[in-house]
Structures are given as structure tokens and as C-alpha cells.
């Protein structure tokens, strides 16, 4: 599976002001988000969770071949199995969840699994975050903008409150496509809501996007 912009955005954007000791990436795919957070933080324990066998094997390879292999570990399990007997709390939980909720199924089941919300319903994800998040922890996700209000309402049911929201647009003239959301257990009245535009035209990246992601691209 290719590295998608969503994963890069979440890995670069996720707040780490709480200096997390332990991080969990739910639905790791190739492991890109966990790897980016290993590069950005001093976290000593970075766990990833991936149900798809091929993606899991790719994650393990990527972790083992990285400079941070001693801090990274991938579990081959579903979220439901993982939360049955939680051993740890995490200071940071991140997820780029599968979210093709439109009535569309591709020819390959594997790709569907990576994209479909029925593989990991938002409520299951939020419930797991509530269970596994430390008292001062941060929970960060990237989701379709049209799902934002629903996700915020579900999170509030579990007493997880917005800490920061960034709306992502492909170009200045297109509609908002994605929402980057960070939550904490503390209710923040004056949390930040801002906007990020990726390109001004094809492959002409905005200064804001370059600033956010330049540490992770070889050519930017």
C-alpha cells in the first residue's frame, strides 16, 4: 500500500506537547504514523496495531529497518482483541481509521478493509481511546470533514473533548476534505480551529504544508 497524504498529515500534525512516554497507533497500515512519531518524539514505547496480515508484515519490516526499531512494536490483532485485556495506558493514541462510508466496494477485499468504516466503526475507536488513554493523554485522528460533527458528538459521550481542530483543503478553491482532530480528557473552551491548504496548484505545495511536513520528505 502506498503512503497516503492522510497518514503523513496526521503523523506531522499530531500534538506532542504532553511529551508522551507511550504511543499507540490504531490501524497502523505501513507504520508511517508510528515511524513519524518516533522521529518527532522521545517516547520510549510506541505500539502499533494492525489486523491485515500483509500490512502487519510491512509495518514490522519498516519498524525493524528504521533507526527507532528498539522503540517500535506492532501487534497483529484487531482492536476488539487488543482492548479485551489492556495492559497499558497510552499518553498518545493516534488513528487514521478506515472510512469509506459511501456505498462503494472495490474489487479487492484487502483495500476495502483499509478503507471501510465497517472494519472499525468510529464508536469502537473512541471507546477504545477512552479505555486506553492516560489521564493527561491526547487522542488524534484524521477523518472526512463530513463526519466531523458525528465524531465530536460520539467523543463527547466518552468525555473526550476537542483540543485542536484543523480543516484540510486540497487547494484554495476546493471544499474542506479532511478534519484533523485532537482530543483530551479536559474540556477546553478556547481550543484552536484552523485551516490547512495543501497545494496552490498541482505539486505546488503551500508554505504551511511544506513547514508541517518537510522533516519527513527527502525532496520538499
From TrEMBL:
Its EC number is 2.1.1.223. Keywords: Cytoplasm, Methyltransferase, S-adenosyl-L-methionine, Transferase, tRNA processing. GO terms for biological process: methylation; tRNA processing. The keyword DNA damage does not apply. InterPro entries: DNA_methylase_N6_adenine_CS, SAM-dependent_MTases_sf, Small_mtfrase_dom, tRNA_Adenine-N(6)_MTase, tRNA_adenine-N6_MeTrfase. It is found in: Cytoplasm. The keyword Nucleotide-binding does not apply. It holds the Pfam family MTS. Belongs to the methyltransferase superfamily. tRNA (adenine-N(6)-)-methyltransferase family. Specifically methylates the adenine in position 37 of tRNA(1)(Val) (anticodon cmo5UAC). PANTHER family: TRNA1(VAL) (ADENINE(37)-N6)-METHYLTRANSFERASE. This is tRNA1(Val) (adenine(37)-N6)-methyltransferase.
Amino acid at each position: 500500500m502506498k503512503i497516503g497524504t492522510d497518514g503523513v498529515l496526521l503523523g506531522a500534525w499530531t500534538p506532542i506537547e504532553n511529551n508522551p512516554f507511550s504511543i499507540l497507533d490504531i490501524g497502523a497500515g505501513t507504520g508511517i504514523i508510528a515511524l513519524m512519531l518516533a522521529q518527532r518524539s522521545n517516547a520510549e514505547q510506541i505500539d502499533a496495531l494492525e489486523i491485515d496480515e500483509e500490512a502487519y508484515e510491512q509495518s514490522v519490516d519498516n519498524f525493524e529497518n528504521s533507526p527507532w526499531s528498539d522503540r517500535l512494536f506492532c501487534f497483529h490483532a484487531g482492536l476488539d482483541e487488543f482492548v479485551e485485556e489492556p495492559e497499558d495506558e497510552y499518553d498518545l493514541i493516534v488513528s487514521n481509521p478506515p472510512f469509506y462510508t459511501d456505498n462503494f466496494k472495490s474489487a479487492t477485499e484487502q483495500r476495502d478493509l483499509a478503507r471501510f468504516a465497517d472494519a472499525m466503526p468510529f464508536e469502537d475507536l473512541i471507546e477504545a481511546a477512552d479505555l486506553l488513554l492516560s489521564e493527561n493523554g491526547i487522542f488524534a485522528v484524521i477523518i472526512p470533514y463530513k463526519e466531523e460533527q458525528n465524531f465530536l458528538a460520539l467523543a463527547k459521550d466518552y468525555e473526550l473533548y476537542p483540543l485542536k481542530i484543523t480543516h484540510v483543503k486540497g487547494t484554495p478553491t476546493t471544499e474542506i476534505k479532511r478534519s484533523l482532530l485532537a482530543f483530551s480528557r479536559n474540556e477546553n473552551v478556547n481550543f484552536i480551529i484552523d485551516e490547512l491548504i495543501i497545494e496552490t496548484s498541482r505539486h505546488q505545495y503551500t508554505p504551511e504544508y511544506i513547514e508541517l511536513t518537510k522533516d519527513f520528505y527527502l525532496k520538499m
